[in-house]
Amino acid sequence: xxxxxxxxxxxxxxxxxxxxxxxxxxxxxxxxxxxxxxxxxxxxxxxxxxxxxxxxxxxxxxxxxxxxxxxxxxxxxxxxxxxxxxxxxxxxxxxxxxxxxxxxxxxxxxxxxxxxxxxxxxxxxxxxxxxxxxxxxxxxxxxxxxxxxxxxxxxxxxxxxxxxxxxxxxxxxxxxxxxxxxxxxxxxxxxxxxxxxxxxxxxxxxxxxxxxxxxxxxxxxxxxxxxxxxxxxxxxxxxxxxxxxxxxxxxxxxxxxxxxxxxxxxxxxxxxxxxxxxxxxxxxxxxxxxxxxxxxxxxxxxxxxxxxxxxxxxxxxxxxxxxxxxxxxxxxxxxxxxxxxxxxxxxxxxxxxxxxxxxxxxxxxxxxxxxxxxxxxxxxxxxxxxxxxxxxxxxxxxxxxxxxxxxxxxxxxxxxxxxxxxxxxxxxxxxxxxxxxxxxxxxxxxxxxxxxxxxxxxxxxxxxxxxxxxxxxxxxxxxxxxxxxxxxxxxxxxxxxxxxxxxxxxxxxxxxxxxxxxxxxxxxxxxxxxxxxxxxxxxxxxxxxxxxxxxxxxxxxxxxxxxxxxxxxxxxxxxxxxxxxxxx
Length: 584
Known about the structure:
About 30% of the residues lie in helices and about 25% in strands. The chain is of the alpha/beta class. The chain folds into two domains: about 20-355, ANL, N-terminal domain (Rossmann fold, 3-Layer(aba) Sandwich), CATH 3.40.50.12780; about 470-570, 2-Layer Sandwich (GMP Synthetase, Chain A, domain 3). The strands form six sheets. Strands 2-1-11-10-12-13-14-15-16 form a nine-stranded mixed β-sheet. Helix 4 crosses helix 5 (about 115-125) and helix 9 (about 235-245) crosses helix 10 (about 265-275). Mean pLDDT is about 90; it is low at about 1-10. Keywords: Acetylation, ATP-binding, Ligase, Nucleotide-binding. It comes from Halomonas beimenensis.
């Protein structure tokens, strides 16, 4: 077992960073939150300055910023100082290539230190960094390049040859392709970034940026049409920092593991920025999900704070508790989940199997950071998203002819709305101003998610507005049905949709994948239906259950109900570029 080292936790776990949620909310201001950061002269700032540079005159400079776990071989420890030098070399390389502030730089690579250095170096230089999933095929990459018009692509030799080389010459904006990692032979038109960076200075004066200058461009898929590019600014770092502290309870001596890929907004906001601004040691694993490897990482690296996706949790649940109990997971003190609502069963499983419950939280690509959370110092209500974090005002709203009306009744469902502004709020959809404006009514951002708020101020996810099932006058939230199905000991995952019915308008159909050792037979189908009818009543329970070996999911873990519905009814599937698949 690897020792946590001097940067690791010592003795008893520290108290939660947020112990009195109501008291902090009452006095919180974003101005005071910004004062927790260093800033730059003249009211300017830069995300990379807050993540790296401000630590360099402190003992944190020698703390391990990243413990990189390659697929094979020994871990690589990189201090805050060393990571800053890598980022500086990349920033100097961009400058030498004529890249200007505001230019977009795309990163398409697996989780390696070079990718993180490229992201931070781009921000240091004042560029706009856009992470893309390395598992995207050629077409999703090309469509995002055509929308965002980057001047630089950062990728690996293997990914370039397989997914980019055939079409890159037809996209004139991409002037440079920088190859990171091992490069056997740089193809024509590309540059070995490692070799080029070695010739650059490890010193760089991070560029002071206006708070509203663009810093990040994150693509998010809609149900139809091309993906949307959500623009985020340097001011977003204020929200990344404070929500990392309050919602994830990050404290300076933590060993933190966010399993999200930087190609997803979580892997940037909470896989790069929040942990570094909070001075923690982050674990970065190059390999994809493997249950035994994951438990071994939690044990050997003495992970204290773990942020992962419901999909991964369900996959661990599917394998049973025995594997977990073969490992010493006593270092864990805070577990959090994001990507889609977390079923209550997963919260209970975490407590029983890992010794800690999972704390769900809610946010979107557009919000840029965590908005609603079950924080460490607050009781968990399993199945709830939690309560708004300090600085965020959330409400349940009903659209009217004149705008919106806020819903007061705890039993009533409406659209989740957030009062603007907050620092990490997206500032636009690239090239789609009208689409952006439709997201707002007055001072409220309408999320497209249906929710209710209970008498204690906890929010409960009902479903996407276009996912809700209307059956015989009832509005049925698929998440509620899925959570009950998950209570059956044979069920690993469940996805629920509405299918047309001549009498009821729609009826509920469930798609279920099973845990190992369970046969998808008629007896089990009747058993699952019986549980649902007993718990939900005949008006809400599924009429049909179809067994599937696996359900379609996005790489952020969300079950793609619209894809289940499209395939069931023979409808267009829309954008499937974020559909989970094998590693490429």
